[in-house]
Design a protein that fits this description.
Blueprint: E1 2-3, E2 5-7, H1 10-17, H2 40-60, H3 63-68, H4 70-126, H5 129-144, E3 151-152, H6 163-173, E4 178-179, E5 182-183, E6 195-199, E7 204-211, H7 229-237, E8 241-246, H8 247-252, H9 254-269, E9 287-288, H10 292-300
Parallel strand pairs: 7-8
Antiparallel strand pairs: 1-9, 2-8, 3-5, 4-6, 6-7
Helix pairs in contact: 1-5, 2-4
Length: 307
């Protein structure tokens, strides 16, 4: 791991990878049921009754049968005739319905390819590079606007060795964007950034830190690998970008540190105006992060006195 350490909130990354919600795909028309299954019971009853009707007529031609049971013949005749009436009514009305359904289906099926072509064109338009870029920019703006605002401190805090010097460079390149003496977190000892870059047009917040390997007078190890993980996570969860420079970088490469900030702003917001003021400035040279053991060793060597 090397300085500068740059931590971009996951929410920013998700916004840059998000895709628009697509409209549902049109459903292909379903062929309607035009069979006579709805009248199967009536057809059975009518057929049976009509058969009985014929038998009745046959029995009417036999003097022996009609003399034996003329009432049954009459009953079968009536049942047969009555059973046929609803069948003819249903067949007539259902024929019209089936014809209408079939016509609608054929018309829908005919225009369906055109509907699918329009749908595919719309999907291509939504997923085009230009539209995706615009969509993701808008989504990112929404996420950035959710960044938690800092609270101004009522008392001053101890400053690092190179904070005043770096503040001069920062206010030169970002005159309206740098604030100090603020905190983040509503608890007893809130986190106090060394500097905060705030882009007023988007609401982007960058926590800018100068990390020393040890406390100058006590040689106590600080800012070693893993020691600031909880703090970094807190800023990230509040939609802040975290940018940590090694003190050595600020002391030796203040201009390169400033262009690093400008690059981050340009990458996230697309605002390249700061970069236009920083021509011919070299990119920052990385510095290896230190472990606790490294910090102890550097303290014994009085390394901070060498730059």
């Amino acid at each position: 791991m090397q300085f500068p350490i740059i931590i971009i909130p996951k929410s920013f990354k998700w916004a840059k990878e998000k895709t628009p919600k697509l409209p549902p795909e049109p459903l292909k028309p379903i062929q309607p049921d035009t069979s006579l299954s709805g009248c199967s019971l009536w057809i059975f009853i009518g057929t049976f009754s009509f058969s009985m009707l014929l038998i009745g007529f046959g029995n009417n031609g036999s003097n022996n049968s009609i003399n034996e049971n003329p009432e049954m013949v009459l009953i079968f005749n009536i049942i047969g005739l009555v059973s046929l009436i609803p069948i003819f009514i249903w067949l007539y009305s259902n024929k019209k319905k089936r014809t209408i359904k079939k016509t609608i289906y054929e018309n829908e099926l005919k225009v369906f390819p055109n509907i699918m072509e329009e749908y595919n064109q719309k999907i291509q338009e939504i997923m085009s590079s230009k539209n995706l870029l615009n969509f993701r920019e808008q989504e990112l703006k929404k996420v950035i606007q959710l960044s938690t605002s800092a609270n101004y401190l009522k008392k001053s805090v101890n400053k690092g060795r190179y904070e005043d010097l770096f503040f001069t460079y920062l206010t030169n390149f970002f005159p309206e964007n740098i604030i100090i003496n603020v905190s983040l977190g509503h608890f007893e000892n809130p986190y106090v950034p060394d500097f905060v870059f705030v882009d007023k047009s988007t609401g982007l917040h960058i926590d800018i830190e100068i990390d020393e390997p040890y406390v100058l007078n006590t040689k106590e190890p600080i800012h070693f690998v893993g020691s600031d993980a909880r703090r970094n996570l807190f800023f990230e969860e509040n939609n802040w970008v975290v940018l940590r420079f090694a003190e050595e970088q600020v002391a030796k490469q203040p201009l390169s540190c400033c262009i690093t900030i400008a690059n981050i702003v340009n990458e996230i917001t697309g605002n390249s105006s700061y970069l236009s003021k920083m021509k011919n400035i070299e990119e920052i040279k990385p510095v290896e992060c230190w472990t606790r053991e490294d910090s102890l060793f550097l303290g014994k060597q009085n390394y901070r006195e060498t730059y």
